Amino acid sequence: MEARGRNTDKTRRMVLDAAAKVVGTQGAGASVDTIARHAGVSKGGVLHHFKSRDQMLLALAEDLIEQFRAAVHAAIDPHDNAPGRLVRGYVNATFDELVSGDGNSEFAVLVATLFSVPGVDELLRQDSRRWADAFDADGLHPQRARLIMHAADGASIAGLYGGGDLASLEQSRQLLLALSRQDGPLIAP
Amino acid sequence: MEARGRNTDKTRRMVLDAAAKVVGTQGAGASVDTIARHAGVSKGGVLHHFKSRDQMLLALAEDLIEQFRAAVHAAIDPHDNAPGRLVRGYVNATFDELVSGDGNSEFAVLVATLFSVPGVDELLRQDSRRWADAFDADGLHPQRARLIMHAADGASIAGLYGGGDLASLEQSRQLLLALSRQDGPLIAP
């Protein structure tokens, strides 16, 4: 049973990785057939795991959300115990992915395609609430934390289609990190 | 000739409006046939104007970019002559569209679909450079102007999928407007 569980997890992982690759290059036209072929799994095997193409894409969206969450936590400096450490992890994880530049346009197509999958909007709303709660617990003034998160998100869209060069991306990162090391509202209410 | 020019412009406008509607509801699966039917134009007529489906979608992306540019300029307060007036127009145009809430999810699908059309990335890069130049001429410290623009863009993604409620969108708008009424770098370099 344990071996079977491991194989199931491994198949699931292979299908999600193949789906990310195929959807990132082919967009909404990516078929279950092509994804199955890339994963080295039968179409029936894919559908056994995910029931339908939309369910597979929904699982992929969930997986990407979790991967980003893990990247943020991995980017937190373990010696950083000041308020805003999670905000700094969020900023660094966002910009690390952008400046690596690897597969940015594939990632843009992938995200754009997943955006129109039924249920993904609800996943994003839940994720947005989870980040808001986590930032509240991070100790920085909420107005400041929200501004930094929105600015990191906005810079990352520009970065995805190559709208910002590396130097200006790096400037944006440093500005957001510096803003997270001060505290209080940016404007008195 | 003049009448013919007007008819040509009118047909083009009808096709682009129909394309925005159909792509916003059907995503990448939207066919030229369906768009032509919605526009009340023959498929041949659509292809006469735009040569190919991709050319039509590229023209639609260009049209949306121009519409947003026009909305920003329309949102500038004519009595506002202080540095940052264009930044304030950008912020207000962005949030006006979001809080109207009308067709946000259609708009999200439309933008996501256009993102993967060949040539749209280059349009966005050009647009990004035009905004950067326009903000430079707007008189606010460039670091401040860029942060406000990125934060407005980031808030607008959250708003598109309903990640921010109306009250928090309005708070974000007021914060960004207030930041544009002060000047200088947000953090000393």
UniProtKB/TrEMBL annotation, chains A, B:
Cited InterPro entries: Homeodomain-like_sf, HTH-type_TetR-like_transc_reg, HTH_TetR, TetR_CgmR_C
Keyword Transmembrane helix included in the entry's annotation: no
Listed transmembrane segments: none
DNA-binding region, residue range(s): 31-50
Keywords associated with the record: DNA-binding, Transcription, Transcription regulation
Domain HTH tetR-type: 9-68
Record's keyword annotation contains S-adenosyl-L-methionine: no
Highest taxon of source: Bacteria
Entry-linked Pfam families: TetR_C_28, TetR_N
PANTHER family reported in the protein's UniProt record: HTH-TYPE TRANSCRIPTIONAL REGULATOR BETI, HTH-TYPE TRANSCRIPTIONAL REGULATOR RUTR
Name this polypeptide is given: TetR family transcriptional regulator
